[in-house]
């Protein structure tokens, strides 16, 4: 009796497997969209055809393999909302915002990390900026230690996945150290060990093109599906920068080697590009009042070099510059370092063209 029972159970198991495999292969024929697909069909619905054991074993293994493959494929199909999500990009300050938003166009969401009016040289984080960082896919910075305040957060768990330094790759073009005298700056070949590069490269439109190219490459790598759009946008924007450079060259051609004094050491790249001669700066260290001895030497430079203009900055008023201008009968005008301002796509070119107008008027 026991033997017969075991035989019956074995037969039942085989018959169940046969019916399950047949049911699985018949599923497509029997099911229609909108109907609930049960895990195991009713026995009465299954065909009763007997299948040889060898074929039955093969079909069972074949069916399980395809079932597992299907599950794996389903697990790797991206969700529709993820596919439609735009890349979230943060920028550190105004020029980098302008470069990035012109390359990204409407293909990515670009937002500046710092609020309008915040100084990119020295910034204190609030929870709002930390939250912005945590929600971004990418952050684009100028580099060259301009955003040193960002270093700690960039290496924290809240940092974006991708960090782009727009100045990366510049070597011989960099200017190092503080202002020396009569426009003599150290290049990368003559810099002293530990010297910090001047970070104001965006004020040279040709170096700005370098930054735009780095931003383009980063966006393509992060979002290859939109590479054609990014490339098209970058080409159009670089054409605008080329036009800007051409107009600056033409407008400042008559001012070549003209001696000027600036408030801070912010314009060496601009001066080098357009052959202006910076013969002095009022504050060698920003916000540090110069000594009487230094001011006396600056006065002698103004007289001997026949300086026509002192240039302060739109972002910083300087009563000292106004006083020096009155004492030596030299005009005082404002240039824009573009470190702060309204966040709009044309802000960089608008400011640079305004700088050209100021220089043309002051140096004529």
From TrEMBL:
Instruction: Identify the Pfam families for this entry.
Output: ZnuA
Give the matching Gene3D superfamilies: Nitrogenase molybdenum iron protein domain
Return one GO MF term.
metal ion binding
User: Which terms are listed as keywords in the entry?
Assistant: Membrane, Signal, Transmembrane, Transmembrane helix, Transport
Chain segments annotated as transmembrane = 58-77
Q: Which GO terms describe its biological process?
A: cell adhesion; metal ion transport
The answer to whether keyword Nucleotide-binding applies is no
Q: Which family does it belong to?
A: Belongs to the bacterial solute-binding protein 9 family.
Name of this chain's protein: Periplasmic solute binding protein
Query: Per the UniProt entry, what species is this protein from, by scientific name?
Result: Pedosphaera parvula (strain Ellin514)
